[in-house]
Amino acid sequence: MAFLSEVNPVQPVAKHKIYKHDKNALIVSVVRCRDLPAKDPNLGSSDPYVKLQLLPDKQHKVKTRVLRKTRNPVYDEDFTFYGINFNQLPSITLHFVVLSFDRYSRDDIIGEVFCALNTVDINQAENQQIALCREIQPRSLKIRSQGRGELLVSLCWQPAANRLTVVVLKARNLPKMDVTGLADPYVKMYLLYNGQRIAKKKTHVKKRTLSPVFNESFVFDIPAGGEGLENVNLEFLLLDWDRVTKNEVIGRLELGGPKCTGSALHHWNEVCNSPRRQIADWHKLRE
């Protein structure tokens, strides 16, 4: 199967889907994409490639070659997935992710397409090609429509030791990050001093959940000679782990610093003014 992009603005392409009963094999041909955005503004172009996996199992993963300096790549690449019974096809969703290669940093995600095979006439699959075209959707849209969830953290300021203890407790109401309706969340934290990141910590990944319980404690050493926590702030990133693409930020939280407002500012002030007390609070995550 494959995707053809004949519609604006952005599309990945799959050309034909063929199922071979004698080999229990599904064949997917990634044909082309059209009108991709320019991820390299200097050249007005991208270096796109397509990753494909079969959901919900995520066991079959393939990718096309990278095509340089184009917004209209033509791949015409066939991928064969063996060990798939014909009766399994209605439960399978093809997940295409279109990316732009970057030599110096993580590749940029252009967008994605989900194609559930129960939405196409799979009875044609054994003896003829099935041409499909889908519009590429920005991955941020699904987060925007669902909200970013909330994070429960606990802080304790120990001025005698110049240490700040952070306990990442749990999160709730996270958006559905994949077709299974779940996510693989984890939290990354940065300690900033005078606006500069000086330390980084992260939790373990919690698989397949929208309500992860972390209960992980971290200790940050605060530089001596400052005015307590006056020049310190914390950044929290809640991310969705993904084996195929780069991990995606679900939401952010900042405690302390000039951008800290509302409940976050109240929590931070309480921690600063109540040393040696572990103080917990829920916070809504922002974009």
Structural class: mainly beta
Number of strands: 17
Total domain units: 2
Low-confidence stretches: 1-10
Q: Based on the structure, what is the oligomeric state of the protein chains?
A: single chain
Strand order of the largest sheet: 5-4-7-8
Which range best describes the helical content: under 10%, 10-25%, 25-40%, 40-55%, 55-70% or over 70%? Answer: under 10%
Q: What is the overall number of helices?
A: 2
Largest sheet: 4 strands, antiparallel
Beta percentage is 35-45%
What topology does this entry show?
Layout: E1 2-3, E2 13-20, E3 25-32, E4 48-55, E5 61-63, E6 74-81, E7 93-100, E8 108-116, E9 131-133, H1 140-146, E10 150-158, E11 163-172, E12 185-193, E13 196-202, E14 213-221, E15 232-240, E16 248-255, H2 262-273, E17 279-284
Parallel strand pairs: 1-9
Antiparallel strand pairs: 2-3, 3-6, 4-5, 4-7, 7-8, 10-11, 10-17, 11-14, 12-13, 12-15, 15-16
